[in-house]
Amino acid sequence: MSQIIASIIGSIGFSIVFGIRRAYMLPIAVNAGLSWAVYLLVNGFAGDFAANMVSAMFCSLVAALMARRLRVPTVVLQMPATVPMIPGGSLYYTIYYVFAGDMPTAKSYFFFTARAVFGMAIGFAVVSVLFKTIDARKAAR
């Protein structure tokens, strides 16, 4: 529960840094908290790659749906909600162990970071392609 609360607080903080309007901060915070809860749930039984992919898909889907309802670009709601999912700690330790000369540990952290980043990228891409396809079909009618 503390991790979910931290993701909510972090997303609000990054909303402030990005200059997001106050009216959008609650939807961003809810999306960040739910997306992190999805990450924790999926990570428990499917591992970090699947957890990053599914939580990124969830985050992107919720942001896209809320953006349409609020009539704002999706990125406004998606980016601050995504920030808590970024694997900054594992990236930090990758570089730390490289400079410490402990290459096996650095390699381990690097692969964790890469799995997280690629999982998130795939999750975001799937939802983006889904919505572009839906929009193209609507426009063709």
Automatic annotation (TrEMBL):
Keyword Transmembrane recorded: yes
Pfam families membership: ThrE_2 (PF12821)
Compartments (UniProt record): Cell membrane
Topology relative to the membrane: Multi-pass membrane protein
First-listed, main subcellular location of the protein, grouped into a coarse class: membrane
Segments forming domain Threonine/Serine exporter ThrE: 3-129
Keyword check for Metal-binding: no
Transmembrane parts of this sequence: 49-67, 79-99, 111-131
Protein name: Threonine/serine exporter family protein
Classification of source organism: Bacteria, Bacillati, Bacillota, Clostridia, Eubacteriales
